[in-house]
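[job 4471] stage=fold_predict status=RUNNING
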Amino acid sequence: RQIPADFPRAKAEQQFVAYLKAIGPLAGQSGVTIVIEPLNTAECNFINSVAEADAVAAAANHPHVCILADFYHMLRDGQTPEDILRHPQHLRHIHVAEKAERTAPGVNGDDFRPYLRALKQIGYRGMISIESKWGDVATEAGAAVAELRRQLASV
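[job 4471] inference complete, writing structure tokens
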């Protein structure tokens, strides 16, 4: 997702919202929910925060157009758990990975509890997935899930 330097940001947002308005009903007919994922500013220049994603989802105004919060991207750009608390309405999915190397929970010891606490505070009941770099997922996944469950249990 890159907006060309010479392209108006407002026009890009209008086009994206129009696209979401068009595909929202199609998603609903198929039982699919579209989630807008904010990416960190080093990876893209459009929709970089939970707040921006929430504004676009609100503008699309369709129950099958929602947002995703990715702790990795949030951590990379210094977004806080308060961003989750301020924008719970459209939140439907969570991604987790550690900040430094996009590793799975437990590799470098990142503490996700403040973000998990925010999810608990808003009554989040959706899915949480680990979206990280894996060396050997078959041997690493168990420890990552155990670490994420440990942190969840302590909030």
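[job 4471] summary: The two ends are 34 Å apart (CA to CA).
[job 4471] exit 0
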